[in-house]
Structures are given as structure tokens and as C-alpha cells.
Phenylacetaldehyde dehydrogenase
Amino acid sequence: MTDTSAAFALLDRIQAPEGSGRDIPDAATREIIGRAPVQTVADLDEAIARAKAAQPAWEALGHAKRSELLLAAADALDANAEALAHLLSREQGKPLNGPNARFELGACSAWLRTNATTVLEPEVLLDDENLHAELVYKPAGVVGAIGPWNWPLMITIWQIGPSLRMGNTVVAKPSEYTPLSVLAMLSVMNEVLPADVLIGISGDREVGARIASHPDVDKIMFTGSTATGRKIIESSAGNLARLTLELGGNDAGIVLPGTDPAAIAEDLFWGAFINTGQTCAAMKRLYVHDSLYDQVVDALAGIAASVPIGNGLDENNVLGPLQNKQQFDIVSRLVEDARARGARIVTGGEAAPELGELFYRPTIVADIDNDAALVQEEQFGPALPIIRYSDVDEAFALANAVDVGLGASVWSSDPEAAREAATRMQSGTVWINSHGGLHPMVPFGGVKSSGYGLEFGVAGLKSVAVPQVVSGPGRKA
């Protein structure tokens, strides 16, 4: 079976019957690739009831058995990785190669295996003659996982992997833009998981809002915009569901004086343009010292002008289209605003209609004011504004002035200076001489309007659990 036919075989498992559902287009060609089920609030209520009924038995299996089943689910993902990558590439738009579709499937397996094997031991709080107290972690119950369209498979695994590991059951709702690849991945995992432990629900925003307000949802994990995150907080007030929110970012990078532009150019580029810029923790603003400014701009423009862009199923391409028309329009508007303000479009700055409806050329914008919309708003696309600075203190002030703080980076040839500078950034993660790299054992989360709660590693397991103190007699007794 070819990779394409295997992808369609997975699609046939989960798509709506002919004549029903909602058509999902190929992001690059806009041809229809499948029909997503359109489920209702009533369907969601029934799914949550099933997940709630299945949770006690899943918890009772214990950590060792749940880990064994999650490792088997990772094996199933590996066995279907190429078919899932092809479906993902068509639906989301990201190419197979580069840090894209195949990379995303590899990350799904890696995170799931780490979730399965990470140990969370009871914490001894006090152990003396009078008192022995331990802090243990129990499952929250039913987790509602609401995923995005930019890294739909990987971020869904970030949500469901630790939740299942800790004994929760999960109802997962993918984005309306990328439901097929997520539902296909869940169907593969459900080949080895017990019934109703992991349930996918495909619906509109009304369904997502109901997850947030449902009285039987004990924990909500959401990745998406800050505006939607605020609505989830409001909706969840009635049931006091625990929240992990990974929201918008407008990540800044600062290139310090004395840095070698040639040594950092490739990493700078991919820090901004990974997944065609459609990454929450991608670099969205770059501040460069006056002494290096022209060299950095020229180096990034050279890469942007030469990087292969096109249909994701072409093995040569590493950048694809914007995933949807709404995002394409945002990028176009922000670049045009920068142009109207007198910023210099060094390369790109326009659509690429010969490639397809939603393709936009990789764009480097120089000599731009810090108050331009392209700097102050999250563009979430292939356009990087580069702001010149002469005073380092001013650069940090500008970088920290926005109301979000997911990630940030500092770039320097001096490791000690870079580490000192990193502490000045107001963000959940600060990278040194790179941007956006994640590890399944290193906690990740935002500050300010980028949300709250940590994912990954031991901290991530704790975030999908309920702490309980067990206190009893000490050694004297």
C-alpha cells in the first residue's frame, strides 16, 4: 500500500458518510480531501458521559499498565507515521520534510513515550518522630482537550499523553480547520487503548464552549488564541475546572553586540519561519544592534529568498502555505501596513499565487518602527520584522513591553552575557542562540496573556492531576 492510499485508508475510518459532514480542503491545492464529522453538543454530552464512566477502571489499572498501553499506542503511531504525515501535510499544509509533518509525527511518538515512562514519586513533606506527610497526585477525572490547527497532532499528544498517563480519560476536540488528521491519529491510538478512555469529538465552536462549561469536565487543556482562552476561563467558572492554557505569543529575539551574524543566521531563520511562521513560540520580532543590523538583515533575506516553498507533498519543499484564508489575510494586512508606514520590504512581501491560493512568500521587513502593527501584533505567518536598536536597555524594554510572554531568545557569542541577558526577558521560556526548541522533559508555559500552567515532564504530569496530602503518625508512633 502506498503512503497516499494508506492515508486514505485512515481517512475512511473516521470521515463522515458521503453527503454529510463538512468538507475539508487541501491547504495547498484547495481540493476537497475528506469530510469531517459535524457533531453536536448532545454528541459531546454523550461522549463525556462515556469517558466519565470509563475513568475509574482506567485509573484502577495503575501506572505500570497504563504506561504499557501508552507505549503500545506510540508503537501504533510509529507504524502509521507515514500515512498520518501525508494526511497532515495535505490538511494543514506543512511539507513532509524539514521541521514539518514527519518531524511532527516523530515528536508525537517521543512525547508519548516520555509521558509513559516518566516517574512521578510521592513527595515526602515531613518525616519526624511526630508526623509523616506525603504529597501524592491523583487523576483529575475527565480532561477536555481543545487543540489548535498549526501543530494539530503534536499538541494534541501534549494534552492527551500526560492526561492518560495519570489515569484521566480524555475527550479531545480538534480545530475545525484540521480535524481529519487528529481523528485519524486518535483512531490509531484506540486500536490498543480500552474503550472510551480516549474519545475524539469533531464539532464547531459551540461544542468547544460546552467542553469548557460542562459540569463533568474536571480539567481543560487548551492551546490557541488569548481571546478564546479568556472565554474558556469565563465558561469554566461555573464548574471550577482546572485549566492549562497555552495562549498567544509575540516572541521577541534580541541579537546582542559582538555576535557573529553568519554563525546564527540559519537558526534565526528557522526560529521565525518554522511551520511557515505558524507556531505559537516562533520568533515574531527580532531586535538587532545597530553594529550588526545590516549583516543580519542581509543574511536572513538571503535564506528567505532561497528556501524551497510549495506543495507539502513535494519532497523538495520545506515551507508551505498558510493554513487558512483568515490567517493569510492577517499576514497580508500586517505586511501592507508596514509597507505603508515606510518600512523596507527586503524580500517577499507578497502572495505567491502561482503556487496556490494561500501561499505567501517568506518576508523580511527592515527599518520598521517598533509601534508598527507587524511588530505589536502576532502575525503567525512567514513575515519577520527586524527592529534596529542602539541601546541594549532599550531593546529589553521594547521586547518586554507587549502583554504576552510565551517565549523569547537572546543571541550572543558570549555565553555569560547571554545567560545574564536571558534573565531580563519576561517570558515563560528564554532560549540562548536558538528559538523555539522544546524537550519532553523540560517544562513549557507562558506568562502574562500567554496563559498559565506548565506542560511536559514531571511538572506536566502534576498539571493534569489533583494533589493530595496524606498525613499520619510519625516514627515515634
Remarks:
- Residues 41-60 form the longest helix (20 residues).
- The chain is about 40% helix and 20% strand.
